Amino acid sequence: MEFDPMTPIWAQVAGHLRLEMVTGRLQPGEKLPSGRDLALQFAINPNTAARVYQELEAEGLCSTRRGLGTFVTADRARLEAIRLSLAREAAEQFLSRLDKLGLSPGDALRMVGEAAATEDSQHP
Amino acid sequence: MEFDPMTPIWAQVAGHLRLEMVTGRLQPGEKLPSGRDLALQFAINPNTAARVYQELEAEGLCSTRRGLGTFVTADRARLEAIRLSLAREAAEQFLSRLDKLGLSPGDALRMVGEAAATEDSQHP
Amino acid sequence: MEFDPMTPIWAQVAGHLRLEMVTGRLQPGEKLPSGRDLALQFAINPNTAARVYQELEAEGLCSTRRGLGTFVTADRARLEAIRLSLAREAAEQFLSRLDKLGLSPGDALRMVGEAAATEDSQHP
Amino acid sequence: MEFDPMTPIWAQVAGHLRLEMVTGRLQPGEKLPSGRDLALQFAINPNTAARVYQELEAEGLCSTRRGLGTFVTADRARLEAIRLSLAREAAEQFLSRLDKLGLSPGDALRMVGEAAATEDSQHP
DNA sequence: GTGGTCTAGACCACA
DNA sequence: GTGGTCTAGACCACT
Asked: Is residue A29 part of a domain?
């Protein structure tokens, strides 16, 4: 995994794990790698790895049991709710940006269609 | 104007001016406020204001004429091209995010429709 | 029983048993569950269960007889004294906190009254 | 200031500043010491000092402006609300503890009165 | 100067 | 082994 030097490493790793959790690639209740292991996997400092779990725990995506490790929340409903809220947030941000550019929701729909088609033609 | 503490102030002010220019609220060729005035308007440090124009100039959106001030580019085609590229970039980023969340372009279209409807019901 | 991740599990279980003993729900002289049983009941590690009895024993609330098990102290006076000291400690801590918040003992009495009323209205 | 080795230093310093803020000894909008200064004042590491402000900011007690420093929130209502919620929390915790000890809210009121009298006789 | 981040390495309590 | 905390020192971008 490569890191964008402009955004904190802990945020990038957290973003990655967040996706793994809300999409089910990391199962609810599953044990996450230990801080030390996470540090090794992403070639970061253990302190930075701890910061990652600190963030995800604050979002309610995982919980920590001292001496045992950190675990994905078992609350499937919460995971799905977060997944949807992330999607909604993206949609709203998109519409807001287009609006500031002087484009209507109708324009927005058209642009999404075009962009999707472009993607498809590249990965048919 | 409120500032997001996570992103540099100069980037936020630059983003704001960029929109004004690209949408025509600031006319092509129009004189922009002096660095000192910009600092007063946005309650920022003059150094920060200078950084703003430095950024916008690098993007070709404005140019500085010594002793006269800073002016929006008169190249209407460039302004419109930037406007469209910003919109396309937003659309692609949106689709990419939804894809990472396990949602298809079809889902994306649906979410945009829902979000637009929500906005409409709030600002009918 | 749920565990507060901020305080050691052994302390939380010990606190629970302490209350059972001091209020008579566990009778003086009564045999306590074996370390292994305690571990099962609270879903904790046997080492942690041992730590619990180690703590309670140090407080004089129970004693271990090798080969027989661990027993609540038969000293009713000591149990009652500990119960009162726990209550007094709570009261003093409460007053101290309110004082640091700039509230007088009079305010404290009023807040206890209000809180008690709130509790009553929920569990009348 | 002396530190209780059982609780994190950052939590203790945060608790101290929290009281200063909600009681008005630190005024709303006032600039807090820089991270480096805080570290010097309390003889702690700058990183630990940063952790303190990170915590207080998450509670909405202060906000940080990059390059400028950290400032007590100017929202007096919020400060007062937090002060009252801290007091209420203390009262509820107190009643809950006494309840678990088998003592009624009436007993609680009596104990507060006694404890207050004891304090008074020591600091008349 | 100010905060934000990261690294390196250490110690500790908990399970 | 696991997380939690702390220190020391460094670099960076922002103001």
From this structure: yes
